[in-house]
Specification:
By secondary structure, the protein is of the alpha/beta class. The chain is built from 14 helices and 15 strands.
């Protein structure tokens, strides 16, 4: 890292580290002092302890990135080579003053973190995507595959589940939309939360699951454990990559099938992005109400095409996918992230079968950035789904649902800690 006051000379630290590593011992004060003497250096206790501290930071946790990962509100830490380290606190990327000595230092950190998760990272296998023991998700690509140097992307797990009320206070949705979301959960409607990367899909889904009946048994299936609803009965299943011998892989589709045998009241797929879509749609068509998940999509109208691509890659014909989709899913909750970092619900959409047998996703309620609400052609279907208990009114000519919508107009503050 960059030299700072009170930090020993980096060359000295590297020299001691190499001697300690060659001896195969831990960097205790006595052994560091011995290594310094062996190199012909004479230093006092202050320098010895400073070297010990520097070596400790290199060998424990995430090293120089550890304070960033523990900082309040940080959702992502990104390393673009040794000289560029960024964090995201929900307001966009911010460059930090953390730097590494060189790309070898970044590479060593990446390899140590991957090894802690039981994965191999070297020139023969130059990238890895794993969950660390503390729940942090690591993706790393070694140089020269990555430029300008080894690239790390660390996604910090939510420290707690937000409630729907808290998200509303942060400007994620209006009071009317919040009541619709609660009713969707209570009515055990099958839905997807969609949006781009970092728009808050997981956070919103977790909040909605937290609002479900405490007597429900929720089976949560994920590639990397991120959904942590505040609910008394959650069983989580997590996929597992193959080991260094290429064996032991457990894919999401396997876990969806196992979850269906575990008496779920609600089946949740943390992120639908592969062949598991076939089993999920099949399950939702066989009496498993209230199923839900998240899906990457640029807009709600793109959801059928996105699901179609995933299903056809898994061998399901296009016609079969649309037939299953029409009967399995009821609603899409689409979220966006505005330029100021605010994550919010932008649209509620329903599914409408077409004459050619395909299914289209049509807007029911569209929420503009300024809080203006507009009805769409799917509004009638939405009212059928959620019923009168949601308190939905008829939109005025101005596109507002009434006084409460104005009072709950969306703010511009970013939702810190949202993933």
């Amino acid at each position: 890292m960059r030299q700072r006051p009170g930090v020993p000379d980096r060359g000295l630290v590297v020299e001691v580290r190499d001697r300690i590593a060659a001896a195969g011992v831990r960097p205790t004060p006595d052994r560091v002092a011995e290594a310094l003497r062996a190199g012909g250096h004479v230093h006092g206790d202050t320098t010895v302890l400073a070297v010990v501290d520097a070596l400790h930071r290199e060998t424990v946790g995430a090293g120089p990135l550890e304070p960033l990962l523990r900082a309040e509100g940080v959702t992502d830490v990104l390393v673009n080579g040794p000289r560029a380290v960024y964090v995201d606190r929900g307001r966009g990327l911010e460059r930090t003053d953390v730097e590494f000595d060189d790309d070898d230092a970044v590479r060593r950190l990446a390899q140590r973190l991957a090894a802690a998760a039981g994965r191999r990272l070297d020139d023969a296998s130059p990238f890895v995507d794993v969950r660390l023991p503390d729940g942090t998700r690591l993706h790393a690509v070694l140089a020269p595959i990555a430029r300008p140097g080894t690239a790390l992307s660390l996604r910090v797990p939510a420290r707690r589940a937000f409630t729907l009320d808290e998200l509303a206070e942060r400007g994620a949705f209006t009071a009317e939309i919040g009541e619709v979301l609660r009713t969707v959960v209570r009515a055990r409607v099958a839905f997807l939360v969609t949006g781009g990367t970092g728009t808050g899909k997981t956070t919103l889904l977790s909040a909605m699951l937290s609002a479900s009946d405490g007597a429900e048994r929720q089976l949560v299936v994920e590639d990397a454990s991120e959904l942590r609803p505040d609910h008394p009965h959650v069983v989580a299943l997590e996929s597992r990559p193959a080991n260094v011998e290429g064996a032991g892989s457990v894919v999401l589709r396997d876990l969806v099938r196992q979850a269906l045998r575990m008496r779920p009241d609600r089946l949740v797929v943390g992120e639908v992005r592969g062949a598991e879509v076939v089993d999920l749609l099949g399950a939702l068509n066989t009496g498993h109400e209230g199923g839900c998940g998240t899906l990457h999509a640029n807009a709600a109208r793109d959801v059928p095409a996105r699901l179609e691509a995933l299903a056809m890659a898994a061998g399901m014909p296009r016609a079969a996918l649309h037939s299953q989709l029409a009967a399995a899913l009821d609603l899409v909750v689409h979220v966006v992230r505005d330029a100021d970092g605010c994550r919010r619900v932008a649209e509620l959409a329903t599914f409408r079968p077409a004459d050619d047998g395909t299914v289209a996703c049509v807007p029911a309620i569209v929420v503009r950035r300024d809080g203006e609400v507009e009805d769409g052609p799917g509004r009638g279907r939405l009212e059928e789904i959620v019923g009168a208990s949601a308190g939905l009114g008829t939109a005025t000519a101005g596109g507002s649902l009434g006084p409460a919508a104005a009072e709950g107009s969306l703010g511009t503050a970013a939702a810190e800690g949202v993933t």
